[in-house]
Amino acid sequence: MMDSQHGRTVNMASSEADNSPCDEEPQPGDLIEIFRPAYQHWALYLGDGYIINLTPVDESQAAAVSSVKSVFSRKAVVRMQLLKEVVGGDSYRINNKYDDSHTPLAVSEIIERAQLLIGQEVSYDLLGSNCEHFVTLLRYGEGVSEQASRAIGAISLVTAAASAFSVLGLINTRSRNRPF
Known about the structure:
Blueprint: E1 9-11, E2 16-18, E3 31-35, E4 40-47, E5 50-56, H1 61-64, H2 69-72, E6 75-82, H3 83-87, E7 91-94, H4 107-117, E8 121-123, H5 131-140, H6 146-176
């Protein structure tokens, strides 16, 4: 269960909210988690319906809002866009989930830092410098991404399993090839 400080889910297509009242509006500096079909996209709320987020360099602004290609890009552009246009038919929630472990900067500082980056091209890396890292860096002064940590953990698990199967296969092959 989520509390109102840490998040609520809103489906833009139906305007229904889950886990908290519908009348809660994002506040400047809030982290916005947008649920895409294959991943979560992160943005930072600036106010007056606008967010700041990362989009792929090589796509038009309209195509960039929901593209899976954005996950695999190496460069991104910082854009200010309307929250409702970025969310489209997907759902989102206000998710300041790191507030318990990281102290947010002053809202004025968050907004000022965000506005200085609009239009800038930045490096993008799914595991080390993604959209969640970007918005948490703005809010807390430190880039954090639970999504990237989970992905790194999954990659490590798959690598360890593949190594184990490889070793087991090698042992099994050697035992079958013995002449005695």
